[in-house]
Amino acid sequence: MKQQPTFQDLIAGHVRPGAVSIIGITGQAGAGKSNHIAPLAKAQIESVGYPAEILGLDVFFKLSSRARKAWLNEDGVDPEELTRRADQMTWWDFDRAQSALNDLLAHKPLHLEGVYNRADGGELTGEVHIVPPKEGMAILFDGVAICHLQGMCEIAYVHTPASVRLERLRARDRHRQGAEVLERFRLTQAFEVPYFHSHWHHLSCWLDNSRQDPLVLSSLDQTFALSEDGLPGQIIAFDEKAG
């Protein structure tokens, strides 16, 4: 019987001297992609003396958080346009993201200015500078809507129960208050669930992120993974607390 690889085995398998390997890390908002899995993978790769960098899809947001909120709530916009704006696929510049991945795979330097900066409240004040060395490197490309992009040698789905993701988002987005946090979560759920149902076949592995050392799963049922997993009770309790 073939033994299931560990997280360390999975990451080490993409250390390819002389090449740029792009490892996709995806999952729903609050799953721990950016704060746990990507940094852990980067540290694992660098521990064997191989360069690694993290590139987040969010650097390809077209608007700052502040500008996007105003755009979504603009007065006098017809319902059809409001529906289009609410579709999160319109929020990112996917052509720019794909071009960046292509350049990195071709060992071309990537330099981006005026990009999304979470540390600055979501303003477009960030900068990305990655220069692939001759000996090669690994890129940890993390984000929700990355599954339809090309060039990744692996796309790992990070699973965390919905109730845990809600708590993490509440702690992370402290600038949002009360019901605004819940509304934001519902908005992300409305986009993420159909997106992953449509692109589940692009995933190549699954990670259980409910533990410090992520567990590599042989498979993950998409209906289970994308369910609310006990969340309705959490929502009721949160609504009562907020109200």
Description:
By secondary structure, the chain is of the alpha/beta class. The protein contains 9 helices and 8 strands. It has helices at residues 7-12, 33-46, 65-72, 79-86, 94-105, 162-172, 179-199, 222-225, 231-242, and strands at residues 20-26, 52-56, 110-117, 123-130, 137-142, 154-159, 205-208, 215-217. The strands form 2 sheets. Strands 2-5-1-6-7-8 form a 6-stranded mixed sheet, with helices on both faces. The chain has a two-stranded antiparallel sheet with strand order 3-4. A hairpin with a 6-residue loop joins strand 7 and strand 8 (215-217). It is globular. The model is unreliable at 232-243 (pLDDT under 50).
Question: Can I get a quick summary?
Answer:
By secondary structure, the chain is of the alpha/beta class. Helix content is 40%, strand content 19%. The protein has helices at 7-12, 33-46, 65-72, 79-86, 94-105, 162-172, 179-199, 222-225, 231-242; strands at 20-26, 52-56, 110-117, 123-130, 137-142, 154-159, 205-208, 215-217.
